[in-house]
Specification:
With about 60 residues, the chain is of the alpha+beta class. Helices cover about 40% and strands about 25% of the residues. The chain contains three helices and four strands, in the order ββααββα. A four-stranded antiparallel beta sheet has the order 1-2-4-3. Helix 1 crosses helix 2. The radius of gyration is 11 Å and the shape is globular.
Length: about 60
């Protein structure tokens, strides 16, 4: 479920995975392994600011191991 927080669109793990073309388990694995995916933990859930994901992809960091 996406949310608008302070004018920014935030999405959950499932939506982030769909946006990036991967499975939600891949997102969780990246987080566990310390991949530099921009995120914030809100309660028990990981949230992703859509604009930060776009910047992360554009920077090329999404392809780094």
């Amino acid at each position: 479920m996406s949310e608008i927080i302070k004018g920014e669109k935030w999405i959950g793990t499932k939506e982030a995975a769909e946006y990036l073309g991967v499975q939600p388990a891949t997102i969780r694995d990246w987080i566990r392994k310390g991949k530099d995916i921009p995120r914030k933990k809100i309660g028990k859930a990981w949230k992703f600011k859509l604009s930060e994901l776009e910047e992360w992809i554009a920077s090329g960091k999404s392809t780094m191991e």
